[in-house]
Design goal:
The chain is α/β, with parallel strands linked by helices. The chain is built from 9 helices and 17 strands. The strands form 3 sheets. The protein has a 6-stranded mixed β-sheet with strand order 8-7-6-10-9-17, with helices on both faces. A 6-stranded parallel β-sheet has the order 13-12-11-14-15-16, with helices on both faces. Strand 9 and strand 10 form a beta hairpin. Helix 5 crosses helix 9 and helix 6 crosses helix 7.
């Protein structure tokens, strides 16, 4: 999400300066690659790069191709095949043992449905959307439509279908991806003419921190670097102030019993209780349990959390197994954290793992690290 915001900022700056831009998007990956489909990079005519489509090995060649795209004012599909052991012949030295297809398209600022405008529309609301990029993988010399339309949760469409023959089938597939909340991007093949990259784009992670102590500061810094939206809640007006937390988007001063009245929780919300005030944390946790957010972290030893749960049970409030699934206490991954910076790192890492449905184990035990999720290919027959 931060990368997308950076791309928008860079485009606005380039447009205001009168510079041409092009957008490079990884649209399909076969095998292993450093970045998966959906990775993007903005390229300006003077060679400024924002975002990334690889670990640094493709960017130089993409810049050369992008300048050609800007000069010709038409999109181009570029394929890098590194399945050959001798990939040095490509001049990029990928070493990823995969095939990466990249769409490079010029940005026409006067078009209301250009990719940047679609990104801005997505970011204007906190809801998922589907973004569709069309290209022809079987004939790279054929016209390449590129990023062409956006579908929101109300099934409103921004953009245009380049070919009415695929409209109904493509729209049905896009609605299915959006309705099922599937975070896996898919590639759909329609006959031999179009390849359709249908991408589910999710809102930024919302981090709600209860606690404004000094140990909160590194947690905020790491979350901000990831582009997360941060909401800080505390009952101490002299602690929770913008001067101490300039990277926090919203600061709320509240007693614990009223705290959740100021907090919005959705599927992309993660929460950490770290006020170091037992009664405050317990009061908030009691209110959070029935809501079952994705992640509730509780700072401190396990016996502290267990004491809270026992007290709830004594009041006739017994947490269900499903509710306890979202509670992580002590919060954080076991990485040997000692100081506040290390603890913050372990907590953010655990939140990320939970959101991605991962265990947080070492990558050395995985057979593949770059190809995060096998990209599905569906051959759609057209009437």
């Amino acid at each position: 999400m931060k990368e997308l915001k950076d791309i928008i900022t860079a485009f606005d700056a380039a447009h205001n300066a009168g510079r041409q831009t092009a957008l490079a998007t990884v649209v399909h990956v076969e095998g292993s690659s450093y970045r998966r489909a959906g990775a993007r990079m903005l390229i300006t005519e003077d060679g400024q790069l924002t975002g990334a489509i690889s670990g640094g090995c493709l960017e130089g060649d993409a810049l050369r191709k992008a300048r050609l795209v800007m000069a010709q004012n038409k999109p181009m599909l570029v394929t890098y095949d590194t399945t050959d052991d001798d990939d040095a012949k490509f001049g990029v030295g990928l070493g990823c043992n995969g095939i990466i297809h990249i769409m490079i398209e010029p940005i026409f600022a006067d078009r209301q449905d250009n990719p940047i405008q679609l990104f801005k529309q997505f970011l204007s609301k906190r809801e998922p959307v589907v973004l569709i990029t069309l290209f022809t993988i079987n004939d790279k010399q054929a016209p390449q439509p590129g990023t062409c339309l956006l579908l929101n949760k109300d099934e409103e469409i921004t953009g245009q279908f380049p070919d009415d023959a695929i409209k109904d089938a493509l729209l049905q597939d896009a609605k299915h991806v959006l309705a099922n909340g599937n975070s896996v991007t898919k590639t759909y093949l329609y006959g031999d003419k179009f390849t359709c990259f249908i991408e589910l784009m999710q809102p930024a992670v919302s981090l709600v921190i209860f606690g404004a102590g000094n140990d909160t500061i590194p947690l905020v810094q790491i979350a901000a670097a990831l582009g997360w939206i941060i909401h800080l809640v505390d009952g101490r007006a002299n602690y929770a102030v913008p001067e101490r937390f300039p990277l926090v988007g919203k600061i709320t001063i509240s007693k614990p019993e009223y705290a959740l009245q100021h907090v919005k929780i959705d599927e992309r919300t993660v929460i950490i209780l770290m006020t170091h005030n037992y009664n405050y944390d317990a009061c908030v946790l009691k209110q959070l349990l029935p809501l079952s957010p994705s992640y509730i972290g509780v700072l401190g030893p396990k016996k502290r959390l267990q004491r809270m749960l026992d007290e709830f049970a004594g009041e006739g409030i017994t947490a269900t197994p499903q509710q306890l699934e979202s509670v992580f206490g002590p919060a954080g991954l076991d990485i040997g954290s000692e100081n506040a910076d290390e603890i913050a790192l372990s907590i953010i890492a655990e939140m990320q793992a939970v959101l991605k449905g991962r265990s947080g184990t070492s990558l050395r035990y995985k057979t593949s690290i770059h190809n995060h999720v096998p990209q599905q290919i569906v051959h759609q027959s057209m009437p």
